[in-house]
Design a protein that fits this description.
Number of strands: 12
Number of domains: 1
CATH topology: TIM Barrel
Strand content: 15-25%
CATH class: Alpha Beta
CATH superfamily: Divalent-metal-dependent TIM barrel enzymes
Mean pLDDT: 87
Structural class: alpha/beta
Distance between the termini: 52 Å
Strand order of the largest sheet: 1-2-3-4-7-8-9-12
Length: about 325
């Protein structure tokens, strides 16, 4: 018989988790806030004091690991770093582990940023090989996160979306879908965000969703650049993409609110998680109504009813749909 998992071994699918930051350690331990789970950057665990705090928090909350030092896109992979990650995984048992489709390690040194990859077969082979090495050492499937993009390469032979999906399929890993990154990349000249999300969800590989804030900067040339900074609240446009993502997904996916710079009070982070929780519950309710209405209409075979079934799908694609609109579709 399988053992029953305790609270700290499973992630809630109905409420987002939040970033775990040292600024909030004491308050979390003292007040035990109502939050589903925490995400940890394992690189921060090299401090003995940090590790001690996180171990105590882990007793009451599930954790995920989100590595910024794995550098999966590096041509020369830092395999020694995997030993540290494996040790932390054994010690803290994170439910999920993720890294980035990017690189920041070369010639034995780390660069203080996540740098882009060209989307071609050569980069794809390097990325897949490094993902498989990581999964072999850690003895678990990992997730790869779509990047935020600011430049493109002339020799790209894949779109970013197709590149990430291909890497996941070839390596056997899952995908961490960062909706803020998709929005930022789109505003900087990237792919259509809804088409990107639709293709990702259709792949069946998405295992986690990230939401975060971004900043907008004006260059001396007057050009505007969107930066994925994780330094502010989730923008309404990104919440709208979250709506859209939930409307497409047939399964519940863990969601995380990221905040890494200009850290607010814990209450602000918890409030952001509550917004995500509210959206999730509203969308689940709308999906239930959608299913009921389509079931009723499905028993009727004329063309008018078939057209109404299509209208139902369009109607229930956003939490902004009013209940009166739902019923008006059938009058």
């Amino acid at each position: 018989m399988a053992c029953k998992k305790n609270k700290a071994e499973t992630l809630s699918l109905a409420a987002p988790g939040i970033s775990l930051k040292s600024l909030h350690y004491e308050q979390i331990l003292d007040t035990k806030p109502n939050v589903s789970w925490f995400e940890v950057h394992p690189e921060n665990l090299k401090s003995g004091m940090t590790l001690s705090y996180v171990e105590r928090i882990r007793q009451d909350y599930p954790l995920s690991f989100h590595s910024v030092g794995l550098s999966l896109g590096s041509a020369v992979f830092n395999e020694a770093y995997l030993d540290f990650l494996k040790e932390m995984i054994v010690r803290l048992s994170p439910v999920l582990f993720s890294g980035h489709v990017a690189w920041n390690y070369a010639e034995g040194a780390y660069i203080d940023d996540l740098l882009p990859l060209p989307y071609n077969d050569e980069s794809l082979c390097v990325l897949v090989d490094n993902i498989q090495k990581t999964q072999d050492v850690l003895q678990r499937h990992i997730l790869i996160e779509n990047p935020s993009s600011y430049v493109g390469f002339e020799n790209n032979s894949y779109t970013e979306c197709d590149f990430v999906i291909n890497a996941a399929k070839k390596s056997g890993c899952g995908i961490l879908l960062d909706l803020n990154n998709i929005y930022v990349s789109h505003k900087n000249g990237g792919e259509n965000p809804k088409e990107y999300i639709k293709k990702m969800i259709k792949s069946g590989l998405v295992r986690e969703i990230h939401l975060g804030g971004h900043d907008i900067f004006k260059l001396p040339s007057e050009e505007v650049v969107f930066l994925d900074t994780h330094s502010t609240r989730v923008a309404s446009s990104v919440w709208d993409l979250f709506d859209y993502c939930l409307s497409l997904s047939r399964v519940s996916i863990p969601v995380l609110i990221e905040w890494d710079q200009n850290l607010p009070s814990l209450d602000v982070l918890l409030a952001e998680a509550e917004i995500g929780k509210h959206i999730w519950h509203v969308m689940q309710h709308l999906k239930q109504l959608q299913h009921r209405f389509k079931k009723i209409l499905g028993g009727q075979k004329d063309e008018a009813c078939s057209a109404q079934v299509v209208n139902v799908d369009r109607l229930f694609c956003t939490r902004k749909t009013k209940q009166s609109d739902c019923y008006q579709a059938f009058t």
